[in-house]
Specification:
mainly beta, 7-stranded mixed beta sheet, two-stranded antiparallel ribbon, 8% helix, globular
Length: 206
């Protein structure tokens, strides 16, 4: 099974009604990420104000329907350095994170990501991140799709992944993650698609 990584440009349109600034906490975290990830000065992000139409190939999508909370980060390439900081947990209403194709993004997946309990989609593929999959990822009770792939990642799939009762799609790709695949993953009721791609160290049956 092979998946292609294709740089994508998306245009998102936000309704004119109900436009609002980000709340103070989300705004501060956005600006921190913008600097940490060394994003281009031309990158648009809605920390100060929100325009009706935003190009978001380089930054994040703002949904103003929940009192100024950031709902989505889409950065399919464009990150020039840094790591995923623990402060990402401050974006408490996030529903989607896609930071694929960012080989200059290092560090590890912080355990604090497990506090984003409203997260539905998490995609971290073709990046420079190392370390292991934190067991706290099993706390993401709303997660529907999980995709992780980095040549620098090691360790095993934590047993806690089997706690993701809503998970429909689970992909591990291009990694050194190994060991026995937790048998409980194969018995997850909601799981529709399981992809183990170019991760030869994984063993066992599901």
């Amino acid at each position: 099974m092979m998946r292609k990584f294709i740089p994508t440009l998306y245009l998102f349109i936000t309704p004119l009604f109900g436009l609002a600034q980000l709340n103070s906490s989300d705004s501060t975290t956005c600006m921190y990420l913008h600097n940490l990830w060394q994003l281009s000065q031309s990158t648009q992000y809605p920390c100060a104000s929100l325009m009706p139409i935003q190009q978001t190939s380089d930054w994040c999508i703002f949904n103003s329907s929940e009192n100024g909370y950031l709902k989505e980060i889409f950065l399919n390439s464009g990150i020039q350095g840094g790591y995923i900081p623990p402060e990402i947990q401050n974006l408490s209403k996030l529903e989607r994170i896609n930071i694929d194709n960012n080989l200059l993004l290092g560090g590890v997946i912080p355990p604090e990501i497990g506090n984003l309990t409203m997260l539905k989609f998490l995609s971290i593929e073709n990046v420079g991140i190392g370390g292991t999959i934190p067991p706290e990822i099993g706390n993401l009770s709303s997660l529907i799709s999980l995709a992780i792939g980095s040549h620098n990642m090691t360790g095993t799939i934590p047993n806690e992944v089997s706690n993701l009762d809503s998970l429909e799609r689970f992909y591990i790709s291009n990694s050194l993650i190994g060991g026995e695949s937790p048998a409980a993953v194969g018995g997850m009721d909601a799981l529709l698609c399981l992809g183990i791609i170019f991760s030869p160290k994984l063993t066992g049956s599901l």
